[in-house]
Amino acid sequence: MQHHWKELIAVDRYTVQSRGVLQEVDRKVLTLLYQPLIGCRALALYMTLWGELELLDGQEATHHRLMALMQCGLPDIYSERLKLEGIGLLDTYVHAKEADEPKLFLYELRPPLAPDQFFRDEMLSVFLHRQVGRHLFIQLSNFFARPSIDETKFTQVTRSFSDVFSAVPAEQIVAGLSEEAGPELLEGKDHIRRDEESYVLDDDVFDFELFFAGLSKQLVPRRAVTAKVKEAIKKLAFLYGIPPLEMQKLVLGVIDPAYHIDIDALRRAAREWYELEHGGVEPRLVERVQPLAYRTMENIEPRTKEEQLMKQLETISPRQLLKEISGGAEPSLADLQLIEDVMFKQQLLPGVVNVLIYYVMLRTNMKLSKKYVEKIASHWARKKVKTVKEAMELAKEEAKTYQNWANEKEKGTRTVRKVVRTEIVPDWLNMDYSQPDDDDFDVEQARKELEERLKKYRDES
């Protein structure tokens, strides 16, 4: 690229994030289906940024770093970046500071299309056929093909999200009802889907016809309401009970001059609208319990303390867990807000969040440190943790890493004293307990107190 220096220089900084969860199958799709279209250098840039996603973990670096990692010049990096953007694998954002200061780029990786979507896409499939030839194209198609079933012989009975769940009515939230007031599984609970793409809301949960009727096309063009924006509007309207005319105002408040609707800004606006409408009390994502499809202890009688804990964390909501840990006292709004943010942003299931709460409480003197919680939650989201068992195993495997994270804020303030414990139960927390926050904090005593409170809850329920 002859004029890349107008857009990008080596001292400009960058950070990486992912729009969705990248999975192992994505590597095969990228290598076998996308690489013939974009070339090996563009693929190398994508894979390098994927590696940087976890390595940088939200930190910033200069483009000198990318040049060193890829062993190529900035013009090549810039031109290959454009290929990734053009084919829909990368979104690039830039934060221009003062004229004499380096820019900050945000590279947002987008997962590739699923194989069946790729081959259904006329443009991509034809392009691939032209690049690799008929023989290899058929081979690739067969490799990624799934066994086909004649769906005409079946009647679809899948329940939609709105059929199965209900949002919390405002009056119930304000009245401070217990877990039963939260979103519940109704009679169709056995039809929860296991799809990786989470859940789908029916269009009839929100009146888009009324929504668009009151919007000026000059202020909000239809093209601004992309499929992702539309899905976000449906979810936010369902969760917060926002009517179409109010949603118009929220969208007008977050659309930018380039007609881009920031979904994160829309979510914040929806939350603020709800707080104003309902006296600062928010709907409770934290009332949900682990879906049946992701429970490993369902219909199994626990034989060990670890299995007892697993079963309980699968059947209790995060809010109720916080309440029991507090001896029956209602959790603080700040703690509930933190947990809800984790569930919404990282898309962690309730049982996984329960393990996170339990783990952090034991590691940080019974406190929920925001940065610590968010850092572990982000790691678990990248690892695609779905069950309580997976979360407990990962907590044990990464114990030293998580302890280093907890110790980071203490560096330079005082020496951390190691506390040796002889008895550590349950087994999944069999690790070195050093407490950065309080040398006198007794982990084992805290664990016993947690067990007693949760045992009381089991006995009462």
Automatic annotation (TrEMBL):
Pfam families: DnaB_2, WHD_DnaB. Signal peptide: none annotated. Residues 12-169 form the Replicative helicase loading/DNA remodeling protein DnaB N-terminal winged helix domain. Residues 334-393 form the DnaB/C C-terminal domain. Transmembrane segments: none annotated. Belongs to the DnaB/DnaD family. This is DnaD domain protein. It comes from Geobacillus zalihae.
